[in-house]
Amino acid sequence: xxxxxxxxxxxxxxxxxxxxxxxxxxxxxxxxxxxxxxxxxxxxxxxxxxxxxxxxxxxxxxxxxxxxxxxxxxxxxxxxxxxxxxxxxxxxxxxxxxxxxxxxxxxxxxxxxxxxxxxxxxxxxxxxxxxxxxxxxxxxxxxxxxxxxxxxxxxxxxxxxxxxxxxxxxxxxxxxxxxxxxxxxxxxxxxxxxxxxxxxxxxxxxxxxxxxxxxxxxxxxxxxxxxxxxxxxxxxxxxxxxxxxxxxxxxxxxxxxxxxxxxxxxxxxxxxxxxxxxxxxxxxxxxxxxxxxxxxxxxxxxxxxxxxxxxxxxxxxxxxxxxxxxxxxxxxxxxxxxxxxxxxxxxxxxxxxxxxxxx
Length: 359
Description:
The protein is mainly beta. The chain has two domains: about 5-155, Jelly Rolls, CATH 2.60.120.200; about 165-350, Hedgehog/Intein (Hint) domain (Endonuclease - Pi-scei, Chain A, domain 1, Beta Complex), CATH 2.170.16. Helices cover about 10% and strands about 40% of the residues. The chain has five helices and 27 strands. It has helices at about 130-140, 245-250, 305-310, 310-315, 340-350, and strands at about 5-10, 15, 25, 25-35, 45-50, 55-60, 70-75, 75-85, 90-100, 105-110, 115-120, 130, 145, 150-155, 165-170, 170-175, 180, 190, 200-210, 220, 230-235, 240, 255-260, 270, 275-285, 290-295, 295-300. The strands form seven sheets. A seven-stranded antiparallel beta sheet has the order 2-1-14-4-9-10-11, with no helix packed on it. The chain has a five-stranded antiparallel beta sheet with strand order 8-7-6-5-13. Strands 15-25-19-18 form a four-stranded antiparallel beta sheet, with no helix packed on it. The mean pLDDT is about 80.
């Protein structure tokens, strides 16, 4: 299973894996687009031209109510789903996941705020033909693409929907025997958590993701932020910070910020990754907590929402979640996630003291 094709906003198309032959009966079509550029624009966002048979339709539209609507038709088989793009401005990821044999059709959006909205289709699911894929990714004629689309990617499998792993392979996690690469952790291995305890890992896993706007990694540079090594994360990885800088303005001993909100061009930058895909890792702990990675406290994969929705968990990065022992004891209340305007205030305050934002 792999990501098969990739297209940049400038029209450059790249093939990552072998070109699909015939029909692709399961997969993921991912679009990264500028949410702000769609404000006030209604109608087609992506549509394959009329040279294909009239009974074969592929179209994504933005409706008057603001929803994104996908219509794929192949004779009597139809997928027609709509979902809500969250947030204004920034980047929104739209993913269409389909599997014909199980009649699975999902349209999901992930906004810059980290919120995920999923809608399920019902009934027979049409496959996507190789000719449609070629038109979407390589043709400059007969295909309508809204300029807000910044990139597209195609996989021959269903990508995870839900909380995403956030640390790239090679990230060093504090363990009793010394720092270990996150991908080497196994169930039962203890890691250092923010409460000063060694907490056992229940699960460690990864997701392969395309490098598109909204998923491009962020590099936190050492020695800023108390780091002893550079740490590379996905933009929505939650980082826990505390101390005087957050105690006074927010009346809390700890808060959470997303890695992308710390980008300042010096201590935190967008990582110039040169590969088409990346592998992001995370862990599930016996108790939800922030664990130490290169000297910084990063949140483990959240599972509360997945535990409440087993069908959702089955499509997540950890499909066997319900078979993993539930965390014991009372789960601690999660720290509050700061909004971007609060991050700006925090940055100004810390800059005035010539101090890094996180520690």
